[in-house]
Amino acid sequence: MSQIIIADADGAIVEYDPGFLDPGPRSALLAELAQVQDRFDRDRVRMYGKTLDSPRLVCAFGDDGLHYRYAGVDRTTHPWPPHLRAARDRIADLCGHPFNYALVNLYRDGDDYIGWHADKVSDLAPGSAIASLSLGAARPFQLRHKQQDIEHEVLLASGSLLVMRGTTQQFYKHALPRRRGVTESRFNVTFRHVRAS
Ligand SMILES: O=C(O)CCC(=O)C(=O)O
Ligand SMILES: [Fe+2]
């Protein structure tokens, strides 16, 4: 059952389903991602004219021939492995549009994180959702309004799905802060509908 986290008058919508994946598909997908873990790379983030290593590892999956620059980096996309493809198809049904790209973050432990940012939507199909599937260690996810004093925190459970839609990226930033003491790793998959260029 999905919970509404944000439903603002200006069109920001965030929904959360803690039990999106049943234990079977959840461990199958976790095993599949763990199997391709050697393809994961340090993300290179361009900030203030410098290129820095990100505090997490990343890997991208996508349709054949898809070209997508994320955070200033052209990333090779790997073909969809079967369980990831199955999850993508279920999420496409739920959101009512296809997804052709998935960016997977690997947080090796509680020291890995992602800082405050909004996802770039100009490369995405207009009106499409960003769907975020979590596997492994539960980690708190934070959303903060850019102009108002509004903050939300959701503990993203293994097998959960968080969907950000509407004007969410325009009005909110989000982050996954460091969590000292977490020793288990976490995969996060954000499914996106990249606009054909
Ligand atoms: O790991 C998460 O839950 C968030 C990832 C994220 O915000 C991103 O990849 O843009
Ligand atoms: Fe993001």
How is this fold's topology laid out?
Layout: E1 3-7, E2 12-17, H1 23-35, E3 41-47, E4 50-62, E5 69-70, E6 73-74, H2 82-95, E7 101-107, E8 114-117, E9 130-136, E10 139-145, E11 151-156, E12 161-166, H3 168-171, E13 172-176, E14 186-192
Antiparallel strand pairs: 1-2, 2-12, 3-4, 4-7, 5-6, 7-14, 8-13, 9-12, 9-14, 10-11, 10-13
The structure holds 2-oxoglutaric acid and fe (ii) ion.
Oligomer: single chain
| H-E string | EEHEEEEHEEEEEEHEE
- What is the arithmetic mean of pLDDT? 92
- Kindly, what is the distance between the CA atoms of the first and last residues, rounded to a whole number of angstroms? 36 Å
> Could you tell me the number of beta strands?
14
Keywords: Dioxygenase, Oxidoreductase
InterPro entries: AlkB-like (IPR027450), AlkB-like_sf (IPR037151), ALKBH3 (IPR032854), Oxoglu/Fe-dep_dioxygenase_dom (IPR005123)
Organism: Nannocystis bainbridge
Domain Fe2OG dioxygenase: 98-195
Description:
16% of the residues lie in helices and 43% in strands. With 197 residues, it is α+β, with helices and mostly antiparallel strands. The mean pLDDT is 92. Strands 1-2-12-9-14-7-4-3 form an eight-stranded antiparallel beta sheet. It has a four-stranded antiparallel beta sheet with strand order 8-13-10-11. Strands 5-6 form a two-stranded antiparallel ribbon. It binds 2-oxoglutaric acid and fe (ii) ion. Residues 103, 105, 114, 119, 132, 141, 156, 174, 176, 188, 190 line the site of 2-oxoglutaric acid. Residues 103, 105, 114, 119, 132, 141, 156, 174, 176, 188, 190 line the site of 2-oxoglutaric acid (AKG).
